[in-house]
Amino acid sequence: MHFDLKHLSTFVAVAEELNFHRAAERLAMAQPAVSRLVQELETRLGLKLLERTTRSVRLTGAGRYLLGESRQILNRMEVAEHTARMLDAGTKGVLRVGYTTITGHSLVPDISLEFRNENPQIKLDLSYHSSPAQRDLIIRDEIDIGFLVGSFKSPEIETCLVATHPVIALLPPDHPLCEKAELTVADLVKEPLIIGTDAEWPTFRRIVVDMFQKEGHIIQVAQEATSLLGILGLVTAGMGITMFCGLPRFCGSEAIVSRPIRTKTPVIVETHVAWKRSKTSKTIHRFVATSQKVGRRQLWN
């Protein structure tokens, strides 16, 4: 059975026009070429598709069936070609993105919204992972993009700085320390501290511990929690205070108060977007470009 899409598209034109001359005009072909392609299709199928007289052209039963099937085949091929071109251009597909708690409350949502508006045919598959876990997932090709807290170098992973933000203290609004415009580590060390677990917050926790040590203090953790929601719930209940990078956007001043922390050397947390160095996907590079653009607009710097 040797025929191609040209045979089918020519047959469809004739079957829809029921006129070889009009079909030839529609296809911008010579009428003899149209007749030859239809005859070749009938010969190769071993079927009569059209009843021809000097005055009319009619479809046979087999012709009517093949017309329906041919329309579907040609439509699927058109969709496939269009999709393939969009995939090649990086404007269609699925992008698997990992994020941390720090990036998940503001940066990644803003990037995702802008990227979706610019690339509506690309689906974002978002999943939470700690920074160390994201590095492993990128290497294993289980996610395409990661947002890592802190700098990181690897021969297998490419990174790009997208945002910087200071560590601040978060307190319940009736806490005595709210009277101060800024706090010190000496202020914080006297309070019950609530912080994320080492398993879920390894990078940020290390940054906080280092901040205390550089100021000559040892951190004393009163309570741990795995999620930001759990930590903030404990703070609002009055169990203690915590630290984070910026005020979570879903917290109003009536529930949580933020205060900057004054240290000898400013404690700045870097967020890097990361991807596998061997990947040259246009979709990834489009997402990185959007991340840089949104990151420059963040007010955490």
Please give the CATH architecture of the largest domain: 3-Layer(aba) Sandwich
Global morphology:
rod-shaped
- Find the CATH topology of the largest domain: D-Maltodextrin-Binding Protein, domain 2
Beta-strand content: 15-25%
- Unreliable spans: none
Helix content: 40-55%
H/E topology pattern: HHHEEHEHHEHEEEHEHEHEEEH
Query: How many domains make up the 3D coordinates?
Result: 3
> CATH class of the largest domain, anyone?
Alpha Beta
What's the CATH H-level superfamily name of the largest domain?
Periplasmic binding protein-like II
Output the radius of gyration.
32 Å
Span of the ends, CA to CA: 67 Å
Secondary-structure-based class equals alpha/beta
Protein model, in words:
The chain has helices at 5-17, 20-27, 31-45, 61-89, 101-104, 107-118, 131-139, 185-189, 202-214, 228-236, 282-297, and strands at residues 50-52, 57-59, 93-99, 122-128, 145-149, 157-171, 183-184, 193-196, 221-225, 242-245, 257-262, 268-276. With 301 residues, it is α/β, with parallel strands linked by helices. It folds into three domains: 5-89, Arc Repressor Mutant, subunit A, CATH 1.10.10; 94-163 and 269-297, 3-Layer(aba) Sandwich (D-Maltodextrin-Binding Protein, domain 2); 165-267, D-Maltodextrin-Binding Protein, domain 2 (3-Layer(aba) Sandwich). The strands form three sheets. Strands 3, 4, 5, 6, 7, 10, 11 and 12 form an eight-stranded mixed beta sheet that branches. Strands 1-2 form a two-stranded antiparallel sheet. A two-stranded parallel sheet has the order 8-9. Helix 1 (5-17) packs across helix 3 (31-45) and helix 1 (5-17) packs across helix 4 (61-89). It is rod-shaped and about 100 Å long. The protein starts with a helix and ends with a helix.
